[in-house]
Amino acid sequence: MKKFHAHGKLLITGEYLVLKGALALAVPLNKGQTLSVEPSKEPGLNWRAETPNGVWFEVKFDHKLAVQKSTDHKKAENLQLILQKSVEQNPDIQEKLNQSAVTTMLEFDPNWGWGSSSTLLHLLAQWLKIDPYQLMDKTIGGSGYDIACAGANQPIFYLRTKGESPQIKTAHFNPPFIHQMGIVYLNKKQSSSTQVKSFLESASHNENLVEEISILSKEFATEQKINRFMSLMHQHEKIIAIATGLTPVQELLFPDYNGAIKSLGAWGGDFALFLSEKNFGTNKKWFQSKGYPVVMPFEEVILNRQIM
Q1: pTM for this structure?
Q2: What domains are there in the chain, each with its CATH number?
Q3: Which of 29, 24, 19, 233 has its CA nearest to residue 112?
């Protein structure tokens, strides 16, 4: 059996404008996805996707990657496209896919938006020896920061301009108040690919906003004072609101929160980052009293926090 692993991700700064070439700060998570491959006596490819809640979906492809049967037609079609584009990148892959049984295990709830698609692309790149960014460009789209996180061991700065290879550098992001930081699930899954497409189609290109976010990304990684960091969070939200025409999450959902809240990734769903002068436990109870039960310490979900 061959087994591969990829890390999940959170985008701390740069949402949306990373697509326009802004510098982004992102962190890999301690949970991700694994892919195991075993030889099979049957022709074709058997694929089984699992989550912490059980089987996500199953699909059987023939030797030409035609779907023979599946438990979820849409998911099977999406996977089929990814595999077909992988073969286009390297035709020799077809042999590897035939007479194989693949099992993927997502280590987090797929509704959380921690990178179920990006981790899959990174896993396929490891197994099939292909370029995950090229595969992303031809399938799910995006900036690629999540693919970079899938293979990273600590926080990163990420920058990619159109037609260029990504620039990835280590970011030493370890604020002294990290134990007060948390993330809250907004009770709604947001489709990153849909949000990306919408932004690229509607937003006007504003070099000033891109530059402002790039500067803020660097400040996020170095700021040591909690009040100043909260101010940076508010500044970031205002800039992205201008770029997208969307309402910041704190203004929309938590106007009475005594601290700072910013979206992580696509606005309108998934997780938000929060920070205040109060301890994490107090903040957790506050969000849960508002009907948001999934609240986690930031330092416990990120990878290798002790060496950042």
Answers
A1: 0.92
A2: 2-170 (3.30.230.10), 178-307 (3.30.70.890)
A3: 29
